Amino acid sequence: xxxxxxxxxxxxxxxxxxxxxxxxxLIHTLFNGGCINQGxxxxxRAKSRSFALSGSSPDQSFGLKDESIPAGSIAxxxxxxxxxxxxxxxGPRGTMSIMDEIDAVNSNPNISGMLLLIDSPGGQVSxxxxxADKVKSSPKPVVSFVEGLCASAALxxxxxxxxxxxxxxxxxxxxxxxxLAFADLKPYYExxxxxxxxxxxxxxxxxxxxxxxxxxxNYDGYRTEVLDKINEKFIAHIRECRPAVSEDALSGKMxxxxxxxxAGLLDEIGSFQSALAYTANLAMQYSNVQxxxxxxxxxxxxxxxxxxxxxxxxxxxxxxxxxxxRIGQLDQEMAALKSRNEDLDASLQKESSAKxxxxxxxxxxxxxxxxxxxxxxxxxxxxxxxETIADxxxxxxxxxxxxxAVYGHDKLAEQFLGK
Length: 419
What we know:
- The structure is a single chain.
- The protein is 52% helix and 14% strand.
- It is an alpha/beta fold.
- The protein has a domain at 3-285: 2-enoyl-CoA Hydratase, Chain A, domain 1 (Alpha-Beta Complex), CATH 3.90.226.
- The longest helix is centred in the last third of the chain and has 62 residues, at 324-385.
- It is elongated.
């Protein structure tokens, strides 16, 4: 089966009913083997291609993958025609590809914001909520510019923008709701002799029950179990993103631009240039906030260093007023302390060098002293080896004959022997 035809017939849709009628003739053409004009396909592809505009020179455009995109640029992302989950051969990119582009924009430091160009009746439910959440949660500013129609799924996506512009008071916005439209082709094929058979496994009692009920004309089960649940999520998103939305706008109505403003679905009517300028202004604010955030992070690191250095407690740090003047004073004090530390380091190096020289000299003196002591010890050892006999005047005792020296021990011996 034709891929587009399969998508049309197998999906639940968030689409304006006026455009859904178009699909009846398209389905008929595709069923009969017809095809879409190739020239139309190339036009659709060109219209859906995203690009970036330089903030300093808005007339200059770049591809989103161009490495030469200048800083401060704005990404322009078209969301035109029917919204499908995947890229279609008929031209429009799918929501999955658009989400990839938004991620690429948010990760590119040279792109500061994005502008969605919307002219769409809506489309498939599948993945629309994911793209809508991606727009709402984008850290960089997002602005939507409606240039004709912003209905159903397209409004679900645009609602998360920071601001929604319309190009004309004849632009139409709304159709908040969910629908299922299908054609029962059995009678057609049965007339051609086709016989249909359908049966399920023994335990698959609820298999295809909702859809078979729909085929038999009983719509309540599918409405409450499928369509209502999708619609609840759709409405909750609109209320969150557009708090001023009127209850009257949540029933599926379409509004011209002025009435859409009154209903809380639109912010203003203006030109593409005014929407681009608004986006650029938000982008500049975003860049300034990011710069301040980076400065704050640097300041926090510096303040933690200062607090640690000066020994501030948590309470002292809380009480200390950190003005720019005070930070300047602290910087000067830190510079003076740094210079003083450098002087002390130099003096310490000088003293260390002198100390080393003194220790070296002391070691040399100690070595010389040890050498002298060794020499003295050697001399004493040599003296001890030599036998010397010397008169000891203190031992001499003068006898009767002074001319003859008499030793004390001789005198005692003579007395003992009786001589």
